[in-house]
Amino acid sequence: MIDLSGFRVLVTGGSRGIGAACCRLFARAGAAVVVQYLASGGKARAVVEELRRISGAPHRAIRCDVTEPSQIEVLFRQVREDWGGLDVLVNNAGVWIHDPLLQLDRTKLDATLAVNVVGPFLCAREAVPLLERSEHGSIVNISSTAGQRGEAYYSPYAASKGAIISATKSWSTELAPRIRVNAVAPGWVDTDMTAEALGGDRRQEALAAIPLRRIATPEDIAAPVVFLASPLARHITGEILNVNGGSVLVG
């Protein structure tokens, strides 16, 4: 039902987890996808090979540090030269770093804010001139339940995801009517980033707090992302779509 043939999509942090799942689902819908990565070049190339088996669209992987303005400029220059424009930006790249307040590590704090907040701002700034020329311009940001209710011992992460919620609402008005801006806020998701935290008894504790009694898969998050980027959501902007199995009822 969702046909994104001809769409050009950039997914940051697209080499693994939620980002890779988004890339696969966009490709299945017919879109051409750029998989942005920083350190996981082998995984990014593997994702691109998978995308090429899914569809014949011109998928590619591009290395870029989303905290470095000069590298982001090069990234979007390549997108413009290769595709002539962009239809969808998915701001997915992020880090989740344990950093209790009383042992606050300035390096960890700066890294969290740089990737999770500065990165999406810089990417959105470069994307807007391209998205404005699209008939389907859309930004989908990945936030978190942590940005809605907080998260003990991960307060820099929670603050960064709360900032993305505020940015989503701000940009949705600022960039209208040409560009829609929405966010998806996942709860627990089974990825390599959460594997250790969900080990042992912690998984059972997490499941007990989720009415649907399951941990989300990356595909569970990718589907709402693709929906929000699609024409089916053409009258939705400024929304935070909660995908948490009912664990945080803030909608």
Question: How do you describe this structure in short?
Answer:
The chain has 251 residues and is α/β, with parallel strands linked by helices.
Structure characteristics:
single chain; 251 residues; alpha/beta; Rossmann fold; 7-stranded parallel β-sheet; globular
Describe this structure in words.
The chain is an alpha/beta fold. It has a single domain, classed as Rossmann fold, CATH 3.40.50.720. 44% of the residues lie in helices and 14% in strands. The chain is built from 8 helices and 7 strands, in the order E-H-E-H-E-H-E-H-E-H-H-E-H-H-E. Strands 3-2-1-4-5-6-7 form a 7-stranded parallel sheet, with helices on both faces. Helix 4 links the parallel strand 4 and strand 5. It is globular. It starts with 7 loop residues before the first strand and ends in an 8-residue tail after the last strand. The model has no long low-confidence stretch (mean pLDDT 95).
Point out poorly predicted stretches: none
Residues in β-strands, percent: 5-15%
Number of continuous helical runs: 8
CATH class: Alpha Beta
Give the spatial strand order of the biggest sheet: 3-2-1-4-5-6-7
Structural class: alpha/beta
- CATH topology description: Rossmann fold
* CATH level-four homologous superfamily name: NAD(P)-binding Rossmann-like Domain
Oligomer: single chain
- Helix share, percent: 40-55%
Order of helices and strands: EHEHEHEHEHHEHHE
